[in-house]
């Protein structure tokens, strides 16, 4: 089991956001914003690496000394649709001891609400506020950068998790699973649809990635 080891920076990086400012100097400003985001991500990784001890054997003094436990999900809490052995008891014990817990995942196919359902289905009582997914991280980034005020919309390459998180912050979006069956018109005179109101593209894990979506990535 991974203990107190954050993969939040991994979560942030698993879903990349290309944000565009409406102004003429848009691409310059957006790449600066992205590099600001990455430098924060890297510096937090560095400080985590400096402070987090790796457990090599069961440590007797771990419980009294550690107040916050951050868990990765896939392969740590569950594997596919099965909870990993020992997890229910471990979480119950930590909660009974009053420890704070967070559950992070770089898989953006589900929203926090979607993950809450998954925890429920595995019989794990985890409050929604303890769940951090890369779908949420992408939406939180747009919220922090006041994307909504631009009046623009988001093109999604990814799944319902990203869409649900965008709905929660009231940012309009299209693409995602709805474009799963589309094909670009490559016949003579075929043109790619282009919506000039797109201000950002969010790319996450997408089990129905296709040539149409790749084309949309190039368009935007
Ligand atoms: C990047 O960060 C610097 C220092 O924190 C800040 O002055 C600058 O405005 C930021 N740039 C963007 C595009 O967010
Ligand atoms: C992300 O989650 C989905 C849904 O649970 C799963 O099918 C997919 O394999 C996961 N992706 C990765 C890369 O683990
Ligand atoms: C999450 O990160 C792990 C480790 O880097 C990687 O194997 C996995 O494919 C990532 N999952 C997604 C959905 O990108």
UniProtKB/TrEMBL annotation:
Keywords assigned: Hydrolase, Signal
GO annotation, cellular component aspect: cytoplasm
Record-listed E.C. numbers: 3.1.3.18
InterPro entries for this protein: HAD-like_sf (IPR036412), HAD-SF_hydro_IIA (IPR006357), HAD_sf (IPR023214)
One term of GO molecular function: phosphoglycolate phosphatase activity
Domain of life of the source: Eukaryota
Matching Pfam families: Hydrolase_6
Keyword Hydrolase recorded: yes
Top-level EC class as recorded in UniProt: hydrolase
Signal sequence residues: 1-19
Protein name: Phosphoglycolate phosphatase
């Amino acid at each position: 089991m991974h203990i107190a080891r954050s993969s939040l920076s991994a979560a942030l990086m698993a879903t990349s956001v290309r944000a565009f400012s409406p102004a003429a100097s848009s691409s310059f400003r957006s790449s600066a914003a992205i590099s600001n985001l990455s430098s924060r991500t890297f510096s937090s990784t560095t400080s985590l690496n400096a402070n987090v001890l790796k457990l090599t054997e069961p440590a007797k003094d771990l419980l009294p000394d550690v107040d916050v436990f951050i868990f990765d999900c896939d392969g740590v809490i569950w594997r596919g649709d099965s909870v990993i052995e020992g997890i229910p008891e471990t979480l119950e014990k930590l909660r009974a001891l009053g420890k704070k817990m967070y559950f992070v995942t770089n898989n953006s196919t589900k929203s926090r609400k979607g993950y809450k359902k998954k925890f429920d289905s595995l019989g794990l009582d985890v409050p929604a506020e303890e769940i951090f997914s890369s779908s949420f991280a992408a939406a939180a980034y747009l919220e922090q950068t006041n994307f909504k005020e631009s009046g623009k919309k988001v093109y999604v390459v990814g799944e319902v998790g990203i869409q649900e998180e965008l709905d929660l912050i009231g940012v309009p979006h299209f693409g995602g699973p709805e474009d799963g069956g589309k094909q670009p018109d490559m016949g003579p005179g075929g043109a790619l649809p282009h919506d000039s109101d797109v201000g950002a593209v969010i790319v996450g894990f997408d089990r129905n990635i296709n040539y149409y979506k790749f084309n949309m990535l190039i368009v935007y």
